[in-house]
Write a structure and sequence with these properties.
The protein is an alpha+beta fold and 274 residues long. It has five helices and eight strands, in the order αααββααββββββ.
Length: 274
């Protein structure tokens, strides 16, 4: 045994692997701590930058405000445009109404002139009929006729005279289909009313009136005979013979109750009820 074996060695003892690893781990932890701290420090140092990054949020709000302002502006523009369209439409309607009124006034003036002319013409025709009535009255009183049979005196009762007198009193009255007097007639209602003055009740329509009494030829007419146009039983018009080749009837809407000449409108047949 060496005599120095009991003397502790002055060499630095070797470090064991475990200690070396432990120390390395501690050193690594320290370094990690330092790295974390450094990162934290860096993060803290970057905080002002983070606050600057928040600016896009402010920019987005500003964009929203701008967009809202644009919407409001567009709405205002649309409102102005709509108002302008309404004003234009109102102006157009007012112009059209003015034109329509002018046209209506023009038509009304033309109508007034036409009515005045028609009234004047009617007065002239009435005056002419009055003259004809006076002439016919004179002729009837003298017993003039278109044929020898017209000279036959009316019945003693004077029934034919009352028929003719009634008919002449209606000269100038209007013709209205379906009317029955006292100022407007159609052909058959006038004949019916005239013969009622003589106590004779005739049917209302011309077809039936053409079948009454005794059939007589148009060449053998007598004052008071009923003239008809069309077939017997299907006549479309009637009048009354008043002598001198003339008859009195409610002719049509344009003529009214008038005296006409048989030569211009020959009858189809005639019947005698008195």
């Amino acid at each position: 045994m060496s005599h120095t074996a009991h003397i502790p060695s002055h060499r630095k003892p070797r470090r064991s692997a475990t200690k070396v690893a432990l120390r390395a781990g501690v050193a690594g932890g320290v370094l990690s701590t330092l790295a974390v701290a450094a990162a934290a420090g860096t993060a803290n140092a970057a905080e002002p930058v983070t606050e600057t990054i928040e600016m896009p949020t402010l920019t987005a709000d500003l964009s929203a405000q701008i967009a809202h302002s644009a919407d409001v502006t567009q709405q205002a523009a649309d409102s102005y445009e709509s108002r302008a369209e309404q004003d234009a439409a109102a102006s157009k309607a007012a112009k059209q109404a003015k034109e329509d009124q002018a046209q209506a006034e023009k038509k009304a003036e033309a109508k007034r002139k036409a009515e005045a002319a028609a009234k004047k013409k009617a007065e002239q025709e009435r005056a002419s009929r009055s003259a004809e009535r006076t002439n016919l009255t004179t002729q009837s009183g003298g017993g003039s006729s278109a044929s020898s049979s017209d000279s036959v005196a009316p019945p003693a009762s004077g029934s034919v005279g009352s028929v003719i007198s009634f008919l002449k009193s209606q000269l100038g009255d209007a013709y209205v289909m379906g009317a029955s007097g006292p100022n407007a007639w159609d052909c058959s209602s006038l004949v019916q009313a005239a013969f009622k003055q003589a106590g004779v009740d005739l049917p209302r329509v011309s077809q039936d009136q053409s079948t009454m009494g005794t059939e007589v030829g148009t060449s053998n007419l007598q004052v008071g005979d009923i003239l008809y146009w069309g077939g017997k039983g299907s006549a479309y018009h009637v009048g009354v013979y008043i002598g001198n080749g003339q008859y009195l009837d409610a002719a049509n809407p344009s003529k009214g109750v008038v005296i006409q000449d048989l030569s211009g409108y020959p009858a189809s047949g005639a019947v005698r009820v008195l």
